[in-house]
Amino acid sequence: MDLERIKSIPIATVAADLGFRLSPRGVGRCRLPGHDDHNPSFALRTRHNGFQCFACQRGGSVIDLAMIMMSMDFTQACGWLTGRYLGGNRSTAPRLPQIASAPAAAAHDGQVAPDPDIYGWLLDHSAIRSAGCAYLNSRGISAATIDHFRVGQVASREALLSDALKRFGRERLERAGLVAAGRRGIRLVFPSGYLLFPFFSDGLVVYIQARRADEGRDYRWICPAKLLPPPYNLDVLDGPAGTITICEGITDVLSAHELRMAPIGVLGAARDLSATVIDRLARRNVAIFSDADRAGTALAQRLRRQLASRGITVVTKRLPPGINDLNDYLQSRQAHA
Ligand SMILES: [Zn+2]
Q1: What does pTM read for this prediction?
Q2: Which of 50, 224, 240, 245 could anchor a disulfide with 45, C-beta 3.0 to 4.6 Å?
């Protein structure tokens, strides 16, 4: 059996043959057994030739997909894939599973889950404007960095909501955490003028966090309803960087990128790294730039312990006296340049 060849059978073809109806972005309802998906939670990870469901959390290679969909063991799945796609018997029909709603599926019904299709659409319809660029520029972030992170900006909250409702419907927007009940009906959670920071995984937008485009302190950051942010800029782990810098928050990730580091950002209350992320940090150097306050120090200690238990050595970086975070540091360097 040639595992490399089997694993490179195009996942889009296998998924289509197994009954998945996916958008051109490779996103659609999950049809994995036991998940009665009413949301497009399933996405192809084309760069890895794999798949992932953001709701039932299953994912893997074409072999895993065949195993799960047809209740086969590893050897049977490899045999089926070889027979069907690698010059064997092409008439081998897939044994499709019963899609009827299993009891486990009820737990996902109506719950909020990331919706990469809508998030991608939202970003495509929210180009950053000159005021948004000017604000980020004033904090030391260059146009090239704004472009790199594909920062967007909400033009009109009302117009965007109206277009999104026509295209996706209210129920789907609610499931994606994008609408909230206001005094005069529903409204988009992201106000007009807010900057949008997309979180990518294999080119799909799996989360969006919004920020005021000025120095006002009220509602500075806004997240989709009931969804916690994953780490930011995880795509950098697909690159060749030998040293990964962990920092706090989106602004510090942009600042670290500006300082030619390869950063990932931890944010929100759930700031532990998942086992998957830690695996992807293995065999690299990890540097932590946490904020110079008590919470930042505690975060650095916790991450250092977490990573050390997996054999990853971490260097804690200290900012110069009087400098509170990486954005302060970036701005002070630019002021002295
Ligand atoms: Zn699923």
Answers
A1: 0.71
A2: 50
